[in-house]
Structures are given as C-alpha cells and as structure tokens.
C-alpha cells in the first residue's frame, strides 16, 4: 500500500477574524503528482503557505514528516550572486562527512544532475541571471537533492510560457519516478490532465471534489472551479457608469482602440497574457517600464504583491507621505510638521490599519492591509485612472473581497479603472465591459455584467 506523505483534515485558518480555509481536507501519497486547481482566491495558495509555515492554523489536523516538505512559490528566488552549482550545494540534505571524504563528489553530482534534468542551465550561471522558469527548475532540483518527500509548486505555472510549462511538468514527471511526491497549484485545468494522478478542486476555502484519472473531465473540473466564485462576483457588481459622452477618463489609440469612461471598470483578459501585457506597457509609456508609479495621471498596482508600490521598511504613514509630498509641500519642498503628524497617524487609521501596527514597517502588515496601503498611495499620488494588474493573483479570500469592494468604491467616485487579469472569472460579473483577446489574434469588447458562466468555464480549460 502506498505510504501517506501528507494528511490535512478539517483545516481552518483566519485573517483578521475572516476565514480563509474552511474545512480543507487533502491526502497525498508517495510517488503521487496531485493538482490543486482553483480560481484566484479559492484557497489553494493559502494551503501552500500553511505547508510553508507562513500561515498558522486556527484548528484542524495536519500530519506530515518534519522537514519533508519543500514549498516553491513565484517569489522564491535563488541566491542571485551565487552560481547555480553553489545554490544546489546549499540543499540541506548534504552529508558533510561524505563530502569531506570525497571533495569532488558534490561537483560531479551537481554536473550530472543538471546535465540529465536541466541541460540548458550551466553550473556556473549566476542564480540571478536565470529566467523565473529556470530558477524554478533549479529550485526543484535543490529540493530533490535536499531529500524532500513532498515538493509543492505554488502558482509557478501561471507565470510560464506554454513551452516553459511543458519543460517544468516534464521535469516534475521524471523526478516523481525517483521517489518524491508533487503538489502543484494552478488556475487552469487542461495542463493538469496529462500525467497528474489526481485533481483536487478547491473553491471557497475547501476541496469540493477530488477527481481521479478515470473521472477526468475538463468541463466538470472547470464547472466545479467556477461555480461558487463566479456567482460570488455578482454580489460585487460595479456601480452604474457615468455617461461616457464627453466624460472619457482615458482614450487609447493604436491596434486596439477604446475609450475608458469616468467611473467605468474595464476588464482586460488574455489567457496567454502577451497582448494584454503589451497594452499594459503601452499605457505606462517608456518611462513607466522602469518605474511603477503614478505616471501622467495613471496609478498602477502590479501583481507582485505591491512590492513596487510600497516601501516595506517604511511605516504605513511614511509610505503615504511619500505619495503626497510633492502635492502638498510648501515653497521649500518641506511638509509642515502638523501635516506630517496628521498623515502618519490619521490616514493609516482611517484605512483600518490597527493602532499597534502604525509604528511597524509595512512588511508587517497583513496582505489585505498592504493592498489598501498601495491603493491609497496611488490615489493620493494624484491618479485619475488606475491600472490594476492581477490583484487577485495568489490573493486569499479576504483580500479578494476587499479588492472588489475598494475598486467599486473608487469607480463610484468617478475614477476610471482598467483591471487586467489572466482569470476571466475575476472579471465577469464585476466589470462593466471586458476587452477579450482571442487565440486567433482577434479581439472584442463584451458586456462584463451580462457575461455568462459558460464563457468563464471555457476560459479555464
């Protein structure tokens, strides 16, 4: 009988008293490749963070072997100034006595490992010079060398090209044959149907169904993923749009011309992300490629957990001061002391940041509070149009609900919002209109509030 590597029973987690995981259950056995599929905010990444020790449990049973789990996330990086071989040697499973008895053994093993499993990566390449997908490959090999029994890939495939995705899944399949189990989180169904032993479908904080090989059905899995989250978006329908006639917040020319109205939320969806990101860069302009800030009246929130919008070592009030300093400073460029004191305490408090965290660095804030801080910073900086790139990517349920609420409030106040997402389920039922890039190269603008669930399901396949 296969050995049980992981058992999660009735897991519950909370953030600011809001539930994230709600009765989550999952088992993983030795030598298995399990897909954990769900829409953004469904809870799959929260579970990965529980395994990584980032999110505490409020109740439930989690049984696994100590030191046997290695979690690799999009944010996971190699040591940039060390060579690939040196990064691999950092794997915790090396036996010092064996290395000292044969100093050249580790070098030979690393070279052989790269040659067999990742031939495009050279042992002397610097970790920081590799692409995200190549860094992930090395990270998987490092976990394998370290003796991990279960390797978790959280949201890695969502940032890969189709070719990179195939290479990573091929590597996973080959290493699985050597012993370790793999748990892969993803928001798409089709890539997980070939080679995966089971698919666990996550929705609203729990596994709603586990599909085995003989039950694989793309339509069934997509419907299970979309059902609850799609309907829940309907609760957050954007406010009525102001008359667009003569009230354009933004006019875009070029291959894909459109007008964004004041108070309108326009979604942009492209499954491959290439054309949507080209539009995103066009709106930022050449200067905006290097500096994600308020640019010509355009405020930006990127998917990188707002790390480009807030200074993690600064206090919340200091971050907000930086956004408005140029707008409210005196003739000498100095803010009056009373203004500084007011903003440092009052503004963060009005955003719901607890008194006890006002004097802590922004990195100590919860994820939803970081979102609020980045959003408020963009607005205070003078933005009239807001570009929001994948705000729900990896977001937990609380942050996703909060994002819907705050974006709707800004639109009600007249701000034009462009909401980019690789998950159509995040946009349908919330955005007024949705710009859809099709696989055949065409594009169209659809009514987002009237978009049916069938269209969303097809986008997940």
From TrEMBL:
Coiled coil: none annotated. The keyword Transport applies. It holds the Pfam family ABC_tran. Gene3D superfamilies: P-loop containing nucleotide triphosphate hydrolases. The keyword Plastid does not apply. Residues 6-229 form the ABC transporter domain. One of its GO terms (molecular function) is ATP binding. Keywords: ATP-binding, Nucleotide-binding, Repeat, Transport. PROSITE patterns: ABC_TRANSPORTER_2. This is Sugar ABC transporter ATP-binding protein. It comes from Anaerotalea alkaliphila.
